[in-house]
Amino acid sequence: MFELIPYSEECKNDWDQIVNEARNGSFLFYRDYLEYHSDRFSDASYLVKRKNKLVAVIPGNISQDVFYSHQGLTYGGIIMLSAVTASDIISVYSLLNEELKNKGVRKVIIKPMPHIYHKVPSQEEIYVLFCIGAEKIGCNISSTIYQNNKIKFSQLRRRGIKKSKKNGVVIEQSDDFKSFWIILNENLRDSHNAAAVHNVEEIEYLFSKFPQNIKLYTAILDGQIIAGTVIYEMSHIVHVQYISANGIGKELGALDSVFDHLINEKYLHISIFDFGQSTEQNGKYLNEGLIFQKEGFGGRGAVYETYEYQIK
Question: Does 118 lie in the same domain as 227?
Answer without folding.
Answer: no
